[in-house]
Amino acid sequence: MIVGQRIESYIAALGASPDPVLAAMEALAERRGFPIVGRHTGTLLGLLARCIGARRVLELGSGYGYSALWFARALPEDGTVICSDLSAGNRDLALGYFRTAGLESRIDFRVGDGLTIAREQTPGFDIVFNDIDKVDYPASVEVAVSLLKSGGLFITDNTLWKGKVAEDGPGDENTEAVRAFNKLVFSRPDLESVIIPIRDGLTVCRKK
Ligand SMILES: C[S@@+](CC[C@H](N)C(=O)[O-])C[C@H]1O[C@@H](n2cnc3c(N)ncnc32)[C@H](O)[C@@H]1O
Predict the structure, then answer these.
(1) The CATH number of 5-207 is which of 3.40.50.300, 3.30.420.10, 3.40.50.970, 3.40.50.150?
(2) Of ligand 1's atoms, which has the minimum distance to the CA of residue 41?
(3) pLDDT in tens, 121-156
(4) From CA 7, how far away is CA 5, in angstroms rounded?
């Protein structure tokens, strides 16, 4: 968390409209200590999807579908979120939550390495959302950008990495990977990039 507990609590207290399925997923994350994007970032993901009229979303690292459900709610009826995760258990949980939410027609969940699954996709995505292991962040850039439409968004979570990216000196493997990722996207002339200091940092890149 980048902005501090006081600000986070203030924003949380303003409240988003309660949603029983998202609330159940948040409760599971709390019980398991599982790192979901949370309600504040989830709201932003849905809002960005609505702003660009997104229809096709690809997620790399979907967990049990919490961030995907925020996207799915923002898509038109025939929209799709292609999810990917290493865990079949996460897929089963996600499908259950999407069924309860009445949104099972909008999810296509693939089990396996997100980068491999991404390389099998046909380009034309409105959004690629990236939340896989941090060491793989630099390798995600080329494939994600190649899959996006012009005007599409490449959104990546945890890009301030608990503030470690801004510390002096060399960092651990994950910190160095996140630093390399941020440098890479900011240096690409085909992307307009910004880091939003929400929760653990969210890098949002628009493909020109
Ligand atoms: C931070 S959690 C995802 C949370 C999810 N985006 C949300 O907010 O609801 C990261 C997930 O990525 C998965 N993961 C890590 N590396 C991966 C990879 N290379 N390919 C696919 N999934 C991966 C893990 O199994 C884990 O479930």
Answers:
(1) 3.40.50.150
(2) 8
(3) 999 999 999 999 999 999 999 999 999 999 999 999
(4) 6
- Evaluate: CB of 136 within 6 angstroms of ligand 1: yes
* C-beta of 113 in contact with ligand 1 (< 6 A): yes
pLDDT digits (tens, 9 = 90+) for 7-19: 988 988 887 677 9
* Site of tokens 């989830």: 42
Q: Can you read off the two tokens belonging to residue 89?
A: 């258990």
How long, in residues, is the chain?
A: 208
Within 13 Å of residue 73, how many CA atoms lie on the same side as its CB? 19
Confirm or reject: Cβ of 61 under 6 Å from ligand 1.
yes
Res. 191: pLDDT tops 90: yes
Distance 13 CA to ligand 1 centre (A): 28
133 CB within 6 A, ligand 1: yes
